[in-house]
Amino acid sequence: MKETNGNNSVEKPDQEQDLGLYFLELCRRKVKEELEDYDGDDEKEESPTELNTLNSSGGFVVVATDKLSVKYVNVNLHGHDVGVIQANRVAPMKRIVYYFEITVKDAGVKGQVSIGFTSENFKMRRQPGWEANSCGYHGDDGLLYRGQGKGENFGPTYTTGDIVGAGINYAAQEFFFTKNGRVVGTVYKDMKGPLFPTVAVHSQNEEVHVNFGQKPFTFDLKEFEAQERMKQQVKIEDIPVVPNASYGIVRSYLLHYGYEDTLDSFDLASRSTVPPINIVQDNGNDDQETTYALNHRKTLRQLIRGGEIDDAFGKLREWYPQIAEDNTSAMCFLLHCQKFIELVRVGALEEAVKYGRIELSSFFGSPVFEDLVQECVALLAYERPSESAVGYLLKDSQREIVADTVNAMILSTNPNLKEAKNCLHSHLERLLRQLTASCLERRSLSGNQGEAFQLQRVLISGKRS
């Protein structure tokens, strides 16, 4: 790509273009996340809320008007006279645990109540566990049934007044069942795909009430989830790593982003307890790539984080004219936008309008910049811009994106730089990206079940801490 400078046509380095476009795309992603009210998990799922009265075993059960209580009203004659009913939605899969409970209001004549999970095509005249792709814990015999007529020893029986729960532990890929607030047992979850919470009654006057979370569970679900997360953490901590690897990774993060003062404090605190580690030799990167222009990068980050954009521009033109002289670059564009934002932040709207006409108007009409310019200018349309749809621009996180852009552009001027991608991410972030890829692969092998690892959420929380 070429740009015109007077009468001369000069080649603009591809590396500079790529870095600038990367951070522009980062801004666009942030716009999308904010407008969608992003909360760190874009995989929200609706949970079951009631029983599905449209898909049940008809004349064998009566469902209360609240669609949460079911009663057996016939006299069963054979095994196909089961009163079975599913929830109105499948059990959510993108979480660590799903759970629901029933209260046995009346065990009826035979106490043949059961609770479990079934697939969408389950025969609605059979107990959960009696057919393929189903699992059920039965109250009359305490047996667990998994896809066949013969049960296996599992837990105690349950009857009138008992509260029984069924859950899916996606972290361990297990079903688990509870009675009166205690875990009865667990079993491997050998069924894939969406599963419906399911209850069944099978003798006269049997009646159960279902709790999908509309009221507190008898079982301490939050504590159970906490224990499962702790088990995962213990597994991670048991993985052998190079001695002092975490020290080197944290240090490289501080170096990469120019946190010189924090780095000095970190080194001072670690000197007497942690022996130094040469992380450069471990990963093949040159130490000069991360220590390059450290003081300059620190100063510029402090200026941008403090909203002093004019001073940041001045330092850039003095120290790095080769990247500051092109006023149409992505880096300069983000700095001009941030200057405009800072004026709006302090209420200097007339000055912001004037600055926008001078510095931002040239970016209108460009498909690369126009959408982001419009987001900035939209701040002027609101009486309370911080509470508007584009209020995210006034947050400190926006300053961080601009500071990261400048930091990367300075690192790109290092004559000893081996790979341009080293400007974008620290060792810690590369490690997290690898972790994300591994977690996604692991989830795909289990049918995309369980909590998703959100890299962006980790990076944001890490920078704020």
Major sheet: 7 strands, antiparallel
Number of E strands: 16
Q: Give the neighbour order of strands across the main sheet.
A: 3-6-15-8-9-10-11
Work out the strand percent.
15-25%
Structural class: alpha+beta
Count of individual helical segments: 15
Radius of gyration: 30 Å
Helical proportion? 25-40%
* Mean pLDDT figure: 84
Low-confidence segments: 1-13, 37-42, 278-286, 461-465
Can you describe what's shown?
The strands form 3 sheets. This protein has a 7-stranded antiparallel sheet, with no helix packed on it. A 7-stranded antiparallel sheet has the order 4-5-16-7-12-13-14, covered by helices on one side. The protein has helices spanning about 15-35, 220-235, 245-255, 260-270, 280-285, 290, 295-305, 310-320, 320-325, 330-345, 350-360, 370-375, 395-410, 425-445, 455-465; strands at about 1-5, 10, 50-55, 60-65, 70, 85, 95-105, 115-120, 135-140, 145, 150-155, 165-170, 175-180, 180-190, 195-200, 205-210. The protein has about 475 residues and is α+β, with helices and mostly antiparallel strands. About 40% of the residues lie in helices and about 20% in strands. The protein contains 15 helices and 16 strands. A hairpin with a 5-residue loop joins β10 (about 145) and β11. Mean pLDDT is about 85; it is low at about 1-15, about 35-40, about 280-285 and about 460-465.
